[in-house]
Amino acid sequence: MAFQDQFSYHGPTRLLMGQGSVGNMSDLLKEKDLKKALIVTDQGLVDAGLVGRITALLEQSGISHSTYAGVAPNPPIQNVLDCTAHYQREGCDHLIAIGGGSSMDVAKTSGVLITNGGEISDYFIGTGGPVKNRIPYLLCVATTYGTASEVTPFAVITDENKYKAAVAGPNIIPDVGILDADMAVALPRPIAAATGMDALTHAIESYVSLASNPVSEGMALHAIRLIAQNLRQAAFSDHNHEATQNMLVASTMAGFAFSQTRLGNVHAMSHPVSGHYGVPHGVANAILLTRVMDFNRYACPGKFADIAVAMGEDVVGLSDVDAAMLSVEAVENLGGDVGIPNTLSEAGVDSDGIQVLAEDTMKSGNVVVNPRKTTIEDVIALYEEAM
Ligand SMILES: [Fe+2]
User: Fold this and answer.
1) CB 3.0 to 4.6 Å from 366: which of 131, 147, 180, 263, for a disulfide?
2) CA 194 – ligand 1 centroid, Å
């Protein structure tokens, strides 16, 4: 421990984990005497029948519900306004997010407006103030294994300038997260790959963060191990409940870890890429991850050597510097195996936009905890390398 000699750990979300665990959700809602849920989700999950499973459970328990299914990828502020209006119009008293980070983040930020009022930009990190009042009771059902928004104090929304702005604080941490393989086992391979690589990015960035601590490091390292052992199977084998469950748990552990430590240059650089070019968050991260690992590895070779071991590499007899290189190769191999594009140009990014992307990157609070000191020139060089 160097960057911070004192640390605290705050992870209040109650988790229900394991295949079939979604069946226990109504007991928790009844315990709180909740009467009417607003389900926050996207149309794809309604069409896939996953939302219907939840509404059936609610109906069996006599809990009313209404559904806002307008969540878009990289959700814009308008989603938050529409969701908030829907909640108020329908007289709901709690939120159930079903989906990945987009649905959960719309639920969190709508919750902020419901109990705090004002505009969502009043709460953006950097330009706004803190979220003073606790959001309504929020239960999150994960259908991907990426953002871990079910346990984090963060929500990311895309503003009118295509900047991905974050709202954060203990008052937006969800009350309950449900990690049930049944809800994620049919994830299409590209989404499984992208969200799994997002979770790996969380774990790696948290592990090497200047703000890491022994608790976060333990969670991050085991998350890396679980992802290395399960992502390929979860993405490629049909209805593999065991691999899916391990990925859900790994994602959440990585979320607990980065809730304590923030992230690093990969997320600082990937948010502008998604905001300006609509590249899925996990894809943008996966493309940038190996480049940023290579940039960072001399700053803390011992930690990258640990990552190589967690990824399953044999480092016996190697120096930390050489073992660190194996961590980069192992991540590159995993991304390639699950079908992530190699370059930002393949993902639709235009090199003319690098200056704007780099300026947005430097606004991120993640750059200051990146283990290697980073200038805007470094960021431009990393984007150019990834094109
Ligand atoms: Fe992420």
Assistant:
1) 263
2) 10
CA of 268 to the centre of ligand 1 (A): 10
Cα of 146 vs centre of ligand 1, distance in Å, is: 7
Domain boundary among 152, 183, 214: 183
What is the tens place of the pLDDT at every residue in 179-231? 999 999 999 999 999 999 999 999 999 999 999 999 999 999 999 999 999 99
- Cα(292) to centroid of ligand 1, in Å? 15
Same structural domain for residues 138 and 197?
no
**Spatial separation of the C-alpha atoms in residues 134 and 260, rounded to whole Å:** 20
Domain count, the chain: 2
Q: What is the 90 CA–ligand 1 centroid distance (Å)?
A: 32
Cβ atoms of residues 154 and 259 within 8 Å: yes
- Average pLDDT of the chain to the nearest whole number: 95
CATH of residue 222's domain is: 1.20.1090.10
What does R_g of the chain's alpha carbons equal in angstroms? 20
Q: Residue 262 and residue 264: Cα distance in Å, rounded?
A: 7
279 CA to centre of ligand 1 in angstroms? 13
Neighbours of ion ligand 1 (CB under 5 A): 198
In this predicted model, what pLDDT tens digit does every residue of 359-376 receive, in sequence order? 999 998 899 999 999 999
pTM of the model: 0.94
Domain boundary (140, 161, 183) is at 183
271 CA to centre of ligand 1 in angstroms: 9
How many Å lie between the centroid of ligand 1 and the Cα of residue 8?
22
Handedness of CA 342, 347, 353, 356 (dihedral sign): negative
CATH code: domain of residue 59: 3.40.50.1970
The pLDDT tens digits of the residues spanning 56-100 come to 999 999 999 999 999 999 899 999 999 999 999 999 999 999 999
> Looking at residue 3, what is its pLDDT?
58
User: Measured in angstroms, how far is the CA atom of residue 284 from the centroid of ligand 1?
Assistant: 9
For residues 159 and 204, state if they share a domain: no
